[in-house]
């Protein structure tokens, strides 16, 4: 039975991927395992209270296991109580049954990506963005945007980035003071560092580089390297007086340099606050707008996940990433929702206007 079909009281006999596992100790000072099961339809938290010899070796992240257990409601959220586990031979596993994918087909997302790239009129921005995306194209198209919480699925990074570009394009139509090219370019590469921060779609974990450096610093370094390769930093090798003259004239050499700095700033500040991991705060219109769009898009998906399995008229469980709040699901709320973002046809129509 798929995870999305599990309900309170369901007896479970099925195969699931272990997306995460933690060794814990109960209030009675007994060891137990906190497990996150996953299949293509979603995730479910589980507990194995009776830890048997060999369980810790068996229950490994990235392993598919046959589970016997039952589902119960705990804190207004469904949770599985595991009775027994058995490892499944992964020689002929169809991983698509266990790893969720973006709700929009990858080819459609890639077509939207190409349309947005073509729409960037400023060559300095377009060349820089294309340089970065071509360097990491395969990972950019397939990587998740997180290990859990939001966009933690195949093509999650692409889906998140293109949805943000959809929002950015609409926002620019309302607030004409925003530089649309910077907004589109910035949304598309703001998380480029995640292709090195995260291990990949299957049982995603943080790499050593991800843990010690983080995707924000990785991304900024990648933009700096690409900009240097394109010659955007050549101006810094000139005498200061010449740099000042080119800046005053907003010469092409200075424009390319300033674009590189703005793109670096967008990446460094896109988490919005120091306590959220940004080493600098947003200090341009575009940087502020992108940080708000990023936060909004992530929170909408967090809420969708939290509402999963919640009946209208009831609250969710506590959502730690939303200040530990419980969110109420109104009785007239939509229980099914379409994928986020605009369609390719809508995007192209907007670009023609």
General description of the model:
- The chain is of the alpha+beta class and 353 residues long.
- Helix content is 42%, strand content 15%.
- The protein has helices spanning 55-58, 106-119, 123-135, 137-142, 156-174, 180-189, 194-197, 208-212, 215-229, 240-249, 252-269, 285-307, 344-352, and strands at 11-25, 31-39, 42-48, 64-74, 77-87.
- Strands 1-2-3-5-4 form a five-stranded mixed β-barrel.
- It is elongated.
- The model has no long low-confidence stretch (mean pLDDT 91).
Question: Would you spell out the secondary-structure blueprint of this structure?
Answer:
Layout (H helix, E strand, L loop, with lengths): L10 E15 L5 E9 L2 E7 L6 H4 L5 E11 L2 E11 L18 H14 L3 H13 L1 H6 L13 H19 L5 H10 L4 H4 L10 H5 L2 H15 L10 H10 L2 H18 L15 H23 L36 H9 L1
Parallel strand pairs: 3-5
Antiparallel strand pairs: 1-2, 1-4, 2-3, 4-5
Helix pairs in contact: 2-5, 2-6, 2-13, 3-6, 5-6, 5-12, 6-11, 6-12, 9-11, 10-11, 11-12
Task: Identify the notable features of this structure and list them briefly.
353 residues; alpha+beta
Number of helices: 13
Percent helix: 40-55%
Q: Strands of the largest sheet, in order across it?
A: 1-2-3-5-4
Unreliable runs: none
The string of secondary-structure elements, in order, is EEEHEEHHHHHHHHHHHH
| Class based on secondary structure composition and strand pairing | alpha+beta
Tally of DSSP β-strands: 5
